[in-house]
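Review form for a predicted model. The reviewer records the input and the model, then writes brief findings.
Reviewer: anonymous (R2)
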Amino acid sequence: MRNHNIHFGIVGIFLFLFFLLLYLVITQKSNSFDEKIYQKIATKITPKNTIIMKLITFFGSTVGIICGIGISYFFLKDNYNFFFMIGSMIIEVILNNVMKLLVGRIRPNINPLVKETGHSFPSGHTMASTAFYSFVMYFVWKSSLTMIIQIIITILCISIILLILMSRVYLGVHYTSDVLAGLCFSIAYVALMTYFYPTIYSWMMSIM
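Model under review:
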């Protein structure tokens, strides 16, 4: 029961935050907040920082996530866990594309440092990276690794997620509200998927 409450508590809290951000975006009440955050980040734009941010944002790109999933295959040591992660990521990509089409928010057009196409809300890089690295943390804590290794990997994954969020705003391809919404939705999504993980795992074993 306690595990049930934790999972659905996380889902409820972060879905509420996501829909709050969605409301602020649709009503354009997030514009002032987004502009203020970008102006602060823009003061840090330098050629060196831009190179670093482009490297960081790669880890949340389609190619970067696919490479990460491929590498994870050798560490999960369970094909069902691997298929669970792939299936979960595919579903989230579909959800992201659907939400982008429904909201239809145009990307920022102030000094973009990389070229991106498509709509802006919620951030696909943020959603994908938050989901993938959260799943990595989930399986790390289910593994037999020592606690110190689990803590180190967790800190690393959280740092990567936060840096990717920052990189998307720094590069001028997303508003802060885009990345915060992507973060909130993915946390709720991962909490829901990991709650149903035992059921999904048993189902996959029965059909494969």
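Findings: The mean pLDDT is 89.
Further findings: Residues 2-26+46-207 form one domain.
Recommendation: see findings above.
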